[in-house]
Amino acid sequence: MENFPDHIKRIAHVMEQCQMNQTDLARTLGITRQGLDSILRRHGKPSFDVLEKMRSVLGVDLNWMVTGEGDSWDKKILTLPELRKKEEELKAKKEDELKVERLHTKLALMEKDLSAAKMEVDYLKRLLAEKEKQG
After folding, report:
1. By three-state DSSP, how is residue 44 classified?
2. What's CA 49's distance to the chain center, in Å?
3. To bridge 20 with a disulfide, which of 24, 51, 76, 109 should be the other Cys (CB 3.0-4.6 Å)?
4. Quick count: other Cβ atoms within 10 Å of Cβ 65?
5. What is the CATH number assigned to the segment(s) 6-78?
6. In whole angstroms, what is the distance from residue 55 CA to residue 73 CA?
7. Considering the entire predicted model, what is its pTM?
């Protein structure tokens, strides 16, 4: 890899450290496998969006990615299995939030029904009281 451009070496380092192949990295970054392949075959450099995704999702230090200076990681690196686990946890959390939202909606409807029932009971009590007065 000595003759490869620095950005290719750094991307290869990221894949190795995160235990990812090209398909995994492309999917994680939200780009096509062909797009990543183009970057790795010296046809281009990663866009700012790709670099930002590497920073936000994988924890890659942008300064290191662009210049090769400093530490390669802003924060603890996440391997592919850890990323998948985190994704599953986020999905579960989102499902739980949807369940809570549905329960709140159900509760609001039940409270509305209860309020209507109380109004009906009050109305019937008034009718009964009028009937008793009449006689």
Report:
1. coil
2. 17
3. 24
4. 21
5. 1.10.260.40
6. 8
7. 0.52
